[in-house]
Write a structure and sequence with these properties.
The protein is of the alpha/beta class. It has three domains: 240 residues, 4-Layer Sandwich (Glutamine Phosphoribosylpyrophosphate, subunit 1, domain 1), CATH 3.60.20.10; 188 residues, Rossmann fold, CATH 3.40.50.10490; 160 residues, Glucose-6-phosphate isomerase like protein, domain 1 (Rossmann fold), CATH 3.40.50.10490. It is built from 18 helices and 26 strands. The strands form five sheets. Strands 3-2-4-1-10-9-11-14 form an eight-stranded antiparallel β-sheet, with helices on one face. Strands 5-6-7-8-12-13 form a six-stranded antiparallel β-sheet. The longest helix is centred in the last third of the chain and has 22 residues. The relative contact order is 0.08. The protein binds fructose -6-phosphate (F6R). The site of fructose -6-phosphate (F6R) has 15 residues, from helix 8 and helix 16.
């Protein structure tokens, strides 16, 4: 996740670029940069950290009259957040900003003899463009040839001294919008920077590319002919734009999951194989056990990961709550890989647990969403979840992407430890590649959950129950509900209910039963039957119709438990959100909570 902006016109170029980047800062803020071209004069500024640093650094840039400019706020995917890795990237006479991931950048890089200065995937774009320009002497042709070579996801803006008054643009996978008024042309990753500037907007489709100047705009389809521009009035307000039209950031983030999970996998998973650029061969040598440590939702992801790591890689794995781990005088053995999971990378208990593991000489690995955070800086290696900024206090997309990293890691270790056949690895990777589908919110399902939510606003509590992998998911479902609805909810292993909690069963006890058809279906069914026999109100989630359920939420038919897991995750998140909305709560900022818990 990064944000990009562009400008063509005679107005305040720098002002628009910086203000626009401020609006997009939520998409990433580890570094930022702008480049402005006025005839042959180039002004460029880049800075690490928050946008205020770029504002300071670009203080001396003064522009007057017509010009073109591009800007970028970065969320690192390849290469550390340094000034050299910050966009715009430059060649000899051209400058580019890019949001997305160029999957084949290594292959392209190997074929170019340009001077590379950054570790990013983006830099190949500008060198490739200049190579083609030097051959054809035609900027449009060179840009078209460049786009044809790129694999992966991108929103690209490029300016060049070779054709100075234009912006070349392209979109595939990552968002890009063109805006205009009578005098100016604008580009941005979302509507927010355009509000107050553009009167009309055109939402680019995947595979569209083109070239814009003050007076002309050409649009093409990659591999096809001309495409049609269809501008529509921009009427929305700022807050609505930031939320992408959703009622709450949490809702937007739930809907985003099916896209961001693709970012988590990008360049890491293909059919039959999983790898992480961040982890060199041999890093796991000598590891015979894994300990995972985290808090809250991240702990639930970790617990899910412990089932996957044990099952797929046959490696003893335990998952612990960081605040408990710290004071139990844990026995830490050097053959144990210590994994910490954190969305923010700043959670005090998780950070302290990591320090303990480091002090004991263990190899450490962070699974984190925020590059350059304290946890990332301290861990030996980091795998970024690439979920983009999560604004809702209730974690959603951070959770599903953390689980994905753990699943990929389990498969990588399974490969290295030869615990799975290639056929089984193929099966797992095929399932992984289907997760965007499983996380897609179906409108009819959302509608059903909205209606159903009115039946669950009272009662004396909820039990979310599941078995195996669906037990941590039950914990997560209960946490989601309690933190935003303020209703009492508990996650419980379904098989444990009869060892005590079943005493609570009555019609006012709501049981949310996770009933996957692919994992221990008969077992969970008997557990739910026991509760039903004691008159608990049952809401079952699964594919198979369950006759004893008072309410049944049907998910799609999947053949892999993880796909059922992901489908159900969305159901649980939406259900909690709809109940909380009906209760009139501020879903994005629930009482007593903070997004980042930096105190013990
Ligand atoms: C719940 C939630 C929290 C966090 C926990 C750890 O929705 O977001 O339980 O998961 O505070 O935070 P991170 O992952 O930032 O370490």
């Amino acid at each position: 996740m990064c944000g990009i902006v562009g400008y063509i016109g005679e107005g305040d170029i720098k002002g628009f670029l910086l203000e626009g980047l401020k609006e997009l800062e939520y998409r990433g803020y580890d570094s930022a940069g702008i480049a402005i071209l006025q005839n042959d004069n180039l002004h460029i500024a880049k800075a690490v950290g928050k946008l205020d640093n770029l504002i300071q650094k670009s203080k001396n840039i003064k522009t007057k009259g017509f010009g073109v400019g591009i800007g970028h706020t970065r969320w690192a995917t390849h290469g550390k957040p340094t000034e050299l890795n910050a966009h715009p990237h430059q060649g000899v006479f051209s400058y580019v900003v890019h949001n997305g991931i160029i999957e084949n950048f290594k292959e392209i890089k190997a074929q170019l003899d340009a001077q590379f200065v950054s570790q990013t995937d983006t830099e190949v774009i500008v060198h490739l463009f200049e190579k083609y320009f030097n051959q054809t002497k035609e900027a449009k042709k060179a840009f078209e040839q460049t786009i044809k070579r790129l694999k992966g996801a991108y929103a690209i803006l490029l300016i060049t001294k070779a054709d100075p008054n234009k912006i070349f643009f392209a979109k595939k996978g990552s968002p890009l919008i063109i805006g205009k008024n009578e005098k100016e042309i604008f580009f941005a990753s979302s509507d927010a920077p355009l509000i107050g500037h553009a009167k009309e907007v055109h939402y680019l489709e995947d595979d569209e590319w083109g070239v814009a100047s003050a007076h002309t705009m050409e649009l093409y389809k990659n591999g096809g002919g001309k495409s049609k521009l269809s501008f529509q009035p921009l009427t929305i307000d700022k807050e609505y734009a930031q939320k992408g039209g959703y009622r709450f950031f949490m809702e937007k983030e739930i809907y985003e999951q099916s896209d961001v999970i693709g970012d988590t996998m990008m360049g890491r998973v293909e059919e039959g194989d999983v790898h992480f650029e961040e982890i060199e061969e041999g890093f796991f040598d000598g590891i015979d056990a894994i300990k995972i440590c985290a808090c809250g939702t991240s702990y639930h992801a970790g617990l899910s990961g412990s089932y996957l790591l044990q099952r797929l890689a046959r490696i003893p794995t335990s998952s612990e709550i960081a605040s408990e781990f710290r004071y139990k005088e844990p026995i830490l053995r050097k053959d144990t890989l210590f994994i910490v999971i954190s969305q923010s990378g700043e959670t005090a208990d998780t950070l302290e647990a990591l320090k303990m593991a480091k002090a004991a000489g263990l190899k450490t690995l962070a699974i984190c969403n925020v590059d350059n955070s304290s946890i990332v800086r301290l861990a030996d290696r980091t795998i970024l979840t690439r979920a983009g900024i999560e604004k809702g206090v209730a974690s959603t997309k951070a959770f599903t992407t953390q689980v994905m990293v753990l699943w990929m890691l389990a498969l990588l270790l399974a490969k290295q430890r030869a615990t799975l056949t290639q056929e089984k690895i193929d099966e797992e990777t095929k399932a992984m590649l289907q997760t965007p589908k499983a996380l897609k919110v179906l409108p009819q399902l959302h509608e059903r959950l909205k209606r159903l939510s009115k039946r669950y606003l009272h009662g004396h509590g909820f039990f979310f129950i599941g078995r195996d992998l669906f037990y941590p998911l039950a914990l997560e479902g209960a946490l989601k509900l309690k933190e935003i609805s303020y209703l009492h909810a508990e996650g419980y292993p379904a098989g444990e209910m009869k060892h005590g909690p079943i005493a609570l069963a009555d019609p006012e006890l709501f049981t949310i039963a996770l009933m996957p058809r692919t994992l221990l279906y008969d077992k969970i069914k008997s557990n739910v039957e026991e509760l039903s026999a004691r008159d608990s109100t049952i809401c079952s989630i699964g594919h198979e119709w369950f006759e004893l359920a008072d309410d049944f939420i049907q998910i799609r038919r999947w053949t892999h438990p993880m796909l059922e897991y992901y489908d159900m995750s969305v159901v649980l998140q939406l259900l909690a959100m709809e109940i909380a909305i009906r209760l009139g709560n501020d879903v994005d900022m629930p009482r007593n909570l903070a997004k980042s818990v930096t105190v013990e």
